[in-house]
């Protein structure tokens, strides 16, 4: 607003909310503070006697410099995307693919840019260096209220499969442009290698212990192993994170089943999320995983073993008059065997060394009871309690009946 003539004046300005008033000294240019939001600004000019000689109204549209957030995804990480905001994970700010993508031959990256504050008119994006931004033209933003899905960002042909790729994004409006917003993603399309997969022991509670050897080339690292169990008409995946005990729970029914294992890996990036959230995302992605190592299969048979003794009842006065104990152990260990009478009184106790897996009195003489107490005397007919406890805490309890004739 420009004024002319020989005059003295003061200016009063305010917007519709009445939150801005300014006193202005004489001059040809009227300056006043910018309101926080768009709205109507009233301007009044008065001379030195206080008489109003000018009045005007201006609608001022205020633009604030936008603040944005950039997130990068591997192209195949969420293949069901229909729009930028549907089917996002629980923590959408994750900055790299959870598992690497062997199938992403097109070398594409999904970039989601979210407006945090202000508004935007146009956007440009570059990769590898900030200086590359000046080589890209701004493209208009179609909808200022939504996220921008830059799904069609194709990587240059010279991108190494293990390169850390940094994207730079700037958005702007008439008020100015953002600073450099950047994120780094590791585009690792080299799958890990599973060298071996073997079973160790199937125990009575259907837990199956296994071992494996595998590797991945840096900067990728092993995330864990997936074991797929196929039993009759049923099947399921079990994901075991690297560092956890190599154990899965089998279908409890007796019989043969096939186990197929493969490794999955992830870029060595701190994703800064709670372990509980990470675990849920790990398992969610197994439903459509297509980027994995080679697989190894093996057939096993589960024969559930009941903790028992035989014969029961038994007659200690006959030849070979003893009962033989039978139980499994997950690890080789010393066990303590305690015999109590029906009233809980100690009858006899002794120690025995046992192996991993099924232990029986047929093979281990230390797992036999001859019906005698700690003084070498035969006990009376009746029911007794046998408690078997290993040093590592495994515990079994059985009832034994003595029937002398």
Structure description:
The chain is mainly β and 405 residues long. Strands 6, 7, 10, 11 and 12 form a 5-stranded antiparallel β-sheet that branches. It folds into 4 domains: 10-60, no CATH class; 67-186, Immunoglobulin-like, CATH 2.60.40; 193-302, Immunoglobulin-like, CATH 2.60.40; 308-402, Immunoglobulin-like. Residues 1-15, 75-106, 143-147 and 268-274 have low confidence and may be disordered. It has one helix at 275-285, and strands spanning 10-15, 39-46, 52-60, 67-74, 108-117, 122-127, 139-140, 148-149, 153-154, 164-173, 176-177, 181-186, 193-202, 207-215, 220-231, 234-241, 247-249, 255-267, 295-302, 308-310, 323-329, 333-340, 346-354, 357-360, 368-369, 382-390, 395-402. Helices cover 3% and strands 45% of the residues. It is built from 1 helix and 27 strands. The relative contact order is 0.10. The N and C termini lie far apart (122 Å).
The proportion of strand residues reads: over 45%
> What's the helical proportion of residues?
under 10%
H/E element string?
EEEEEEEEEEEEEEEEEEHEEEEEEEEE
**Average pLDDT score:** 70
Radius of gyration: 38 Å
Low-confidence stretches: 1-15, 75-106, 143-147, 268-274
Shape: elongated
Largest sheet: 5 strands, antiparallel
The CATH class of the largest domain is: Mainly Beta
Number of helices: 1
Architecture of the largest domain in CATH?
Sandwich
What is the CA-CA span between the terminal residues?
122 Å
Q: Please report the total strand number as a whole number.
A: 27
- Structural class by secondary-structure content: mainly beta
Number of structurally distinct domains? 4
CATH fold group of the largest domain: Immunoglobulin-like
């Amino acid at each position: 607003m420009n004024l002319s003539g020989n005059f003295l004046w003061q200016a009063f300005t305010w917007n519709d909310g009445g939150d801005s008033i300014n006193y202005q000294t004489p001059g040809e240019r009227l300056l006043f503070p910018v309101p926080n939001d768009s709205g109507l600004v009233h301007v009044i000019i008065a001379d030195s006697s206080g008489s109003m000689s000018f009045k005007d109204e201006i609608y001022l549209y205020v633009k604030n410099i936008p603040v944005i957030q950039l997130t990068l995804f591997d192209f195949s990480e969420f293949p069901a995307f229909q729009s930028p905001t549907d089917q996002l994970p629980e923590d959408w700010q994750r900055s790299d693919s959870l598992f690497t993508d062997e199938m992403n031959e097109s070398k594409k990256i999904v970039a989601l840019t979210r407006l945090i504050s202000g508004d935007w008119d146009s956007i440009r994006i570059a990769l590898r260096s900030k200086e590359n931004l000046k080589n890209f033209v701004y493209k208009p933003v179609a909808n200022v209220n939504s996220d921008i899905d830059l799904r069609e960002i194709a990587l240059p042909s010279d991108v190494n499969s293990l390169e850390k790729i940094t994207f730079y994004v700037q958005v702007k409006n008439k008020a100015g442009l953002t600073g450099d917003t950047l994120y780094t993603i590791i585009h690792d399309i080299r799958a890990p290698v599973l060298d071996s997969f073997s079973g160790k022991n199937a125990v009575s509670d259907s837990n199956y212990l296994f071992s494996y050897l595998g590797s991945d080339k840096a900067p990728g690292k092993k995330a864990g192993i997936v074991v797929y169990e196929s039993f009759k008409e049923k099947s399921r995946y079990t994901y075991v994170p690297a560092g956890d005990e190599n154990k899965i729970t089998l279908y409890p029914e007796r019989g043969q089943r096939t186990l197929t294992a493969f490794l999955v890996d992830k870029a060595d990036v701190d994703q800064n999320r709670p372990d509980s959230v990470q675990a849920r995302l790990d398992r969610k992605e197994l439903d459509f995983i297509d980027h994995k190592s080679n697989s190894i299969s093996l057939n096993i048979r589960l024969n559930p073993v009941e903790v028992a003794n035989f014969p029961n009842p038994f007659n200690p006065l006959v030849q070979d008059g003893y009962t033989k104990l039978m139980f499994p152990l997950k690890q080789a260990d010393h066990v303590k065997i305690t015999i109590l009478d029906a009233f809980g009184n100690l009858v006899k106790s002794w120690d025995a060394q046992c192996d991993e897996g099924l232990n029986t009195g047929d093979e281990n003489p230390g797992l036999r009871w001859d019906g005698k107490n700690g003084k070498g005397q035969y006990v009376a007919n009746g029911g007794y309690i046998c408690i078997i406890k290993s040093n590592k805490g495994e515990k079994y309890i059985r009832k034994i009946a003595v029937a002398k004739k």
